[in-house]
UniProtKB/TrEMBL annotation:
Family annotation (InterPro entries): 5'-Nucleotdase_C_sf, 5_nucleotidase/apyrase, Calcineurin-like_PHP, Metallo-depent_PP-like
Assigned protein family: Belongs to the 5'-nucleotidase family.
Residues annotated as domain Calcineurin-like phosphoesterase: 6-232
Transmembrane segments: none
Native organism: Staphylococcus felis
Top-level taxonomic group: Bacteria
A Pfam family that the UniProt record links to this protein: Metallophos
Keywords: Hydrolase, Nucleotide-binding
Signal peptide (UniProt feature, chain positions): none
Protein name from the UniProt record: Bifunctional metallophosphatase/5'-nucleotidase
Length: 369
């Protein structure tokens, strides 16, 4: 019997440090660096381990925006090459800064980044779409897939020359070849679930954005289905397949332990779980370079970008939604000015804080994280 441990991180969105950047000097149970410490412990305990990054790692945090503005590919790849990731998958937000930025990062990584259903010409945009690993003679195939709805959301010039095929049809084609060679099949899909896993009832409009339920029910040969995109917390087993979705922002990782029985050539699932970064996590010692980057981003967030003469503080979130308020009025005016629309609607995220006096980038993030 051979034990194989599959670890998943997903939707980290550039949250490397233990902060959501709303305030300075935060120490929260989250971030890639804290995850790395826990993942290293897992690898020490389980020699046959695969660490999969399920995508949405390039965009999402002020840090990501800062690096993209500077076109700093090197810092990005230097950090990720230290984490010990074995294989990655493209998420939909990987395209938000354009193909040139994305390709520079992918080319600098020391592990393959997959998506079998995103094509450039007749070939997968990155790699082969499948990565192969072997543990004591046990062959493990990881197939990468990405939600196919990216053309609906993304700027056309950012995905020029790419084709986004249906994830279900692509997997059907790949499995017809992979099953002949693989002892263990892992599908890492940057997408979520369109139906309730227990009842099978639709939980959203069936637009093709999320097809995780269809993958589970149509392909029982999948041993492990790693998912993301929805930022949900899922660790379960369905129809003999281990299913994981580990939240977002580096607060959690998913863990599946499989046993491969060579006598019967069967796979059994020993454990399927989520592991949170603990509140009492010991402080992670950062290098001078990592600390310098952290301070640069924090200083940049404190820079003044505007000034408002009329106070726009949100003291009563409910009342600010129900009745006209200077802050929501400002947001609507901005949207109308930039879009040319005659009517605008907006929303307060996380209750909102509003603006008063000097406005910094941190103020913007606190209102619209």
């Amino acid at each position: 019997m051979t034990e194989i441990c599959i670890l998943e991180i997903s939707d980290v969105h550039g949250y490397w440090y233990p902060t959501d950047y709303r305030k300075r000097h935060q120490d929260m149970p989250m971030g890639l660096f804290q995850l790395q410490s826990l993942l290293n412990q897992e690898k020490a305990n389980h020699p046959h381990t695969l660490l999969v990054d399920n995508g949405d790692f390039i965009q999402g945090s002020p840090l990501c925006y800062y690096l993209a503005r500077m076109k700093d590919y090197q810092t990005f790849t230097d950090i990720y090459n230290r984490i010990g990731i074995d294989v990655g998958v493209l998420g939909n937000h990987e395209f938000n800064y354009g193909l040139n930025y994305l390709e520079n990062i992918i080319n600098g990584l020391n592990y393959p980044v997959l998506s079998a259903n995103i094509l450039k010409g007749n070939q997968p945009f990155t790699g082969d779409g499948v990565a192969w690993f072997e543990f004591e003679g046990v062959s493990v195939a990881v197939i990468g897939l990405t939600t196919s709805n990216i053309p609906i959301w993304e700027k056309p010039e950012y995905i020029e020359g790419l084709t986004f095929n249906d994830a279900v049809k692509t997997l059907e084609e790949r499995l017809s070849k992979v099953t002949k060679q693989a002892d263990v099949i892992v599908v890492s899909y940057h997408g979520g679930f369109e139906k309730d896993l227990q009842t099978g009832e639709a939980t959203e409009a069936l637009t093709g954005e999320n097809v995780g339920y269809e993958l589970l029910t149509q392909f029982p040969e999948i041993d492990v289905l790693l998912t993301g995109h929805q930022h949900r917390r899922i660790a379960t087993t369905m129809n003999g397949t281990a299913v994981i979705q580990p939240g977002a922002k580096g607060s959690t990782y998913g863990k599946v332990i499989l046993d491969y029985h060579s006598e019967t050539e069967k796979v059994s699932i020993r454990q399927t779980t989520l592991v949170d970064v603990p509140e009492s996590m010991p402080e992670v010692i950062l290098s001078q370079e990592d600390m310098a980057l952290k301070h640069k981003v924090e200083d940049w967030l404190e820079e003044r970008i505007a000034y408002v003469e009329t106070p726009m503080i949100v003291n009563d979130p409910f009342e600010s939604r129900r009745s006209p308020h200077p802050f929501t009025n400002l947001l609507n005016l901005i949207q109308m000015d930039l879009s040319g629309a005659e009517i605008s609607c907006t929303a307060l995220f996380d209750s909102g804080n509003g603006f008063e006096g000097d406005v910094t980038m941190r103020d913007v993030i606190a209102n619209y994280p």
